[in-house]
Amino acid sequence: MIKILVSPSCASCRKVRKWFDDNKIPYEMVNIFSDALKREDIKEAITKSENGTDDIISTRSKVFQDSGKNFDDMTVSELIDFVLANPSVLKRPIIIDDHRLQVGYNSEEIRTFIPRSLRMAHQSCDPANCPKWETCGREEKLNH
User: Fold this and answer.
1) Do the Cβ atoms of 37 and 87 come closer than 8 Å?
2) DSSP state, residue 90
3) Does the active-site annotation cover 125?
4) Within a 10 A sphere around the Cβ of 49, how many other Cβ atoms?
5) Model-level pTM?
6) In whole angstroms, how large is the CA radius of gyration of the chain?
7) Where do the domains of the chain lie, and which CATH numbers do they carry?
8) pLDDT mean over 4-19
């Protein structure tokens, strides 16, 4: 299952949710401020990120700058505790599935979350021989 960590006022978060809704791809949404953010969510994000905390933590956030913390000096457990206490330090949105993580909305990269079955159906569908091609919306959904 795809999990999306969001905040309510985030424009990129709204774009990501709309993209998943438009493509009828199921997801679980976690509001980092009102839902119970779990240790496992943060640990999974750190584990799946290519650059560790640099990918998911906003060092420009006021909370981070005021904290005087250096994440390089913290244990993973201390880092997770800090994020749980200060969820606003997370970049948003964070999209996580079983294999990958994406931070922010990128119209090209987000396509990796299209389920394999839908990608295969698109590849095998022939517009010349498909009576529903114009109305099924498959091409529009996959190209946007």
Assistant:
1) yes
2) B
3) no
4) 19
5) 0.80
6) 18
7) 2-113 (3.40.30.10), 115-144 (no CATH)
8) 96
